[in-house]
Design brief:
The complex is a heterodimer of chains A (254) and B (277).
Chain A (H helix, E strand, L loop, with lengths): L1 E10 L2 E11 L4 E5 L6 H8 L7 E6 L2 E2 L4 H7 E4 L11 H11 L4 H14 L15 H13 L5 E5 L7 H16 L3 E5 L3 H7 L2 E6 L2 E7 H8 L4 H9 L4 H13 L1
Parallel strand pairs in A: 3-8, 3-9, 6-7, 7-8
Antiparallel strand pairs in A: 1-2, 1-4, 4-5, 9-10
Helix pairs in contact in A: 3-4, 3-5
Chain B lengths: L3 H19 L4 H24 L5 H29 L1 H9 L3 H5 L4 H31 L5 H9 L3 H29 L4 H13 L5 H4 L3 H8 L10 H7 L7 H24 L9
Helix pairs in contact in B: 1-6, 2-3, 2-6, 3-6, 3-8, 3-9, 6-8, 8-11, 8-13, 11-13
Classes of the chains: A alpha/beta (254), B mainly alpha (277).
Chain lengths: 254, 277
């Protein structure tokens, strides 16, 4: 189980996260929602060990992740929001490099990488440099790299970014399937429809604080609204969406 | 499992070598390495075309002066800056450093891998440049004279000394700029600071002189600075308190180790936050 306990993160004295606490359990997908600038990416970076919290701690299986960061990272698979890759490597080379750095046996890495590339429809492009890949293709390589070592904890930050419809459909079914196999999944996204479909529980973040943390069903009951979008609108959207949309349309056509 | 760190170092070196040799950002490093070759090549062409008499002593002194001023203080300095400063800073700019930081790789292992890759690239580029420069300098000499110089004279000793100084320069400057790249956001500030320190080092007290790359490199050059190079150059070339190679080489390596230890401590605490960098 992943436990985020009273985490606060400040950048030059300015709080990006304040006293954030939640848990992500094995066999469940935990959604992590929030508007731009709410602190989602900061949380994800803290959970993956890229940033250290100013206060509080992150525990995995009851152990602070800073105690043995190398051992912790062996258990984590992370799909970042932006697909920045080493553009001069081919898709296959990138996955092999990932396997080498993770200490996976070369032969097994090759076999698994080839299978991932086949399933993602990239096998024919495996010798093509990543600089020639589209955003969606790069996203698929990142997904493969994150899952290559069979991680216990999977952190997904906007994993559908750039994916075509069929790949997105496959991934949407893969996430719950991985959770069903006992993985701990933290899923950060703006796409509420997908979160509603795949997540058992959600954390809604607003201005660096947890505005809500419960199961989607319970939140629906509590807020007396039929959809996650309505819940999100009430908790984390400050502007009058309809009014701003009207003003934008008027600006375009006026 | 015991050799995992070796596998990781090898993987990092492979990846970094490709980046260093083939990145567009590093193009000017090649131009820097070629610059002295053009000078020495030009010298030989002019001598051959004009049929000027060959003067071994003169050319050897000219090579020694240009090597100490141009190669050691400019080419090697800025070349290593271009290669080593980019090892961490470049990845911050490319937003790709998280690839390493997310892997179960100790930061010290990452530092060693990156340093070795930078060193391999720098040594290949600049030692080749030094050897080619040396060859071009004497290219207008008759073949028999060169053969005799290499066989019976000091030819091989000079050549290996210059190549050795180049390698040690890469080792020393590499560590300094690796640390600077991990420490500072703006490379101009540390580069200027190191340049000033290396330039005024001759005037520093004897103890402080030892914390400089140029101090050890100058001690290892096979030819003393010629006295007729003018006051400005002689100020740069003179080494008032040279040390023996038996001290200079271990001294340089010890200095490098100290710098790398500081760099490792810095990299251990490094956080990824591209937005503010």
């Amino acid at each position: 189980m992943l436990e985020v306990r009273n985490v606060t993160k400040r950048f030059r004295g300015i709080a990006a996260l304040t006293d954030v606490s939640f848990e992500a359990r094995p066999g469940e997908v935990t959604g992590y929602l929030g508007p731009n600038g709410s602190g989602k990416s900061t949380t994800v970076k803290i959970v993956t060990g890229l940033l250290a919290p100013s206060e509080g701690q992150v525990l995995y299986q009851g152990v602070d992740i800073r105690e043995d960061p190398v051992a912790y990272k062996r258990k984590v698979g992370y799909v970042p929001e932006e697909p920045h890759l080493y553009s001069y490597l081919t898709g296959e080379e990138y996955l092999e490099m990932t396997g080498d750095l993770r200490g996976l046996p070369r032969r097994r890495t090759r076999e698994k990488a080839a299978e991932f590339l086949r399933l993602f429809g990239l096998y024919g492009d495996r010798f093509v440099r990543l600089s020639s890949y589209s955003k969606g293709m790069r996203q698929k390589v990142l997904l493969a790299a994150a899952l290559l070592h069979n991680p216990e904890l999977i952190v997904l930050d906007e994993p559908f970014s750039g994916l075509d419809v069929s790949s997105a459909m496959v991934l949407r079914r893969t996430i719950p399937a991985l959770a069903a196999r006992g993985k701990v999944i933290l899923y950060s996204s703006h796409v509420l429809e997908v979160v509603e479909k795949v997540c058992a529980r959600v954390v809604i973040l607003h201005r660096g604080r947890v505005a809500a943390y419960d199961s989607v069903e319970r939140l629906r009951d509590l807020m007396n609204t039929p959809s996650l979008e309505d819940i999100f609108s009430q908790l984390a959207v400050e502007q009058d969406v309809d009014r701003v949309a009207g003003q934008l349309a008027a600006l375009v056509t006026g | 499992m015991k050799t995992l760190w070796l596998t990781q170092v090898a993987a990092i070196v492979r990846l970094e070598i490709g980046k260093t040799f083939f990145s567009r950002r590093g193009l000017w490093v090649y131009l820097l390495a070629c610059m002295p070759m053009v000078i020495f090549g030009g010298h030989s062409i002019v001598w051959l075309k004009r049929g000027l008499p060959c003067d071994f002593g003169h050319d050897t002194n000219v090579f020694a002066s240009i090597f100490q001023v141009l190669d050691m203080r400019l080419t090697l300095f800025f070349g290593c800056l271009g290669i080593f400063m980019n090892l961490f800073r470049g990845e911050m700019l490319d937003r790709s450093l998280h690839f390493y930081f997310l892997s179960p790789v100790r930061r010290e292992v990452l530092l060693v891998g990156k340093y070795l890759a930078g060193l391999l690239a720098a040594v290949t580029i600049f030692t080749t440049s030094t050897v080619v420069q040396w060859g071009l300098m004497y290219a207008h000499f008759p073949k028999s004279v060169m053969e005799s110089y290499l066989r019976d004279g000091n030819g091989w000793r000079h050549l290996t000394a210059y190549a050795g100084v180049t390698v040690l320069g890469c080792i020393g400057y590499g560590s300094v700029f690796l640390l600077a790249g991990a420490l500072m956001k703006n490379p101009i500030v540390p580069a200027a600071a190191v340049l000033v320190w290396e330039s005024i080092n001759s005037f520093a007290p004897a103890v402080l002189q030892k914390f400089s790359v140029i101090y050890y490199l100058k001690s290892l050059c096979p030819i003393e600075a010629p006295p007729d190079v003018g006051p400005v150059f002689s100020m740069l070339l003179v080494n008032a308190d040279p040390v023996a190679p038996a001290v200079a080489v271990p001294g340089m390596l010890l200095f490098t180790m100290l710098v790398l230890v500081v760099a490792a401590m810095r990299v251990r605490k490094m956080e990824i936050h591209y937005g503010t960098d």
